[in-house]
From TrEMBL:
Annotated protein name in UniProt: Signal peptidase I
Family: Belongs to the peptidase S26 family.
Major site of localization recorded for this protein: membrane
PROSITE patterns membership: SPASE_I_1, SPASE_I_2, SPASE_I_3
GO cellular component: plasma membrane
Domain Peptidase S26: 5-179
Subcellular location: Cell membrane; Membrane
E.C. no: 3.4.21.89
List of catalytic residues: 35, 103
GO BP term, example: signal peptide processing
Organism encoding this protein: Brevibacillus parabrevis
Top EC category: hydrolase
Length: 189
């Protein structure tokens, strides 16, 4: 009985450790769709540092981030726990959550963005974006200013991406994490 309790404690500790690690430090995600072509492929696994989410700091321009696209609702710790792969597996909701998007950071709070001449301008300067798939067909009549505590994100496949142009600005607490180099394939972000 004593040995069985030791095993139960070890397994419980491992589960709690995995939950804490996945909620606050590091988590794998799977790319769903082609909005980040050619940088990331459909069904590709990426690894995300959750530290930006845990400590609420801004990602850098050009960082690839995982966001919760449900920007009209508040997020809480419960959302983070429920979206953890172990919890999703146990509850049977694995791969059912299509609200997490993988996108690239284009604008930070206070930035003024324009979409003209098939390019993105940030604060009056055209962005050098060698990572995009093809010339962007999107044009907007006006300028948008990124509000405080928000970012603006876009997919690299600009003509086939649901991003901030449609869903709006992304609150900082909706940034789940920043993609890190894949330690198994040496892929860079």
């Amino acid at each position: 009985m004593k040995e069985l309790m030791g095993w139960v404690r070890s397994i419980a500790f491992a589960i709690v450790f995995a939950l804490v690690l996945g909620i606050f430090v590091f988590q794998p995600y799977k790319v769903d769709g082609h909005s980040m072509d050619p940088t990331l492929q459909d069904q590709q696994r990426i690894y995300v540092s959750k530290l930006s989410h845990t400590f609420s700091y801004l990602p850098d321009y050009g960082d690839i981030v995982v966001i919760d696209s449900r920007v009209e609702r508040k997020r809480s710790l419960v959302d983070d726990v429920v979206s953890h792969p172990l919890v999703a597996l146990v509850t049977g909701k694995a791969d059912d959550d299509h609200s997490m998007y993988v996108k690239r950071v284009i604008g930070k709070p206070g930035d003024v963005l324009e979409f003209k001449d098939n390019q993105v301008y940030r604060n009056g300067t055209v962005l050098n974006e060698p990572y995009i798939k093809e010339t962007m067909e999107y044009v907007s009549d006006g300028k948008v200013t990124v509000p405080a505590n928000h970012i603006f994100v876009m997919g690299d496949n600009r003509n086939h991406s649901t991003d901030s142009r449609e869903i709006g600005f992304i609150p900082l607490d909706h940034i789940m994490g920043t993609m890190i180099q894949n330690p198994f394939t040496n892929e860079e972000k």
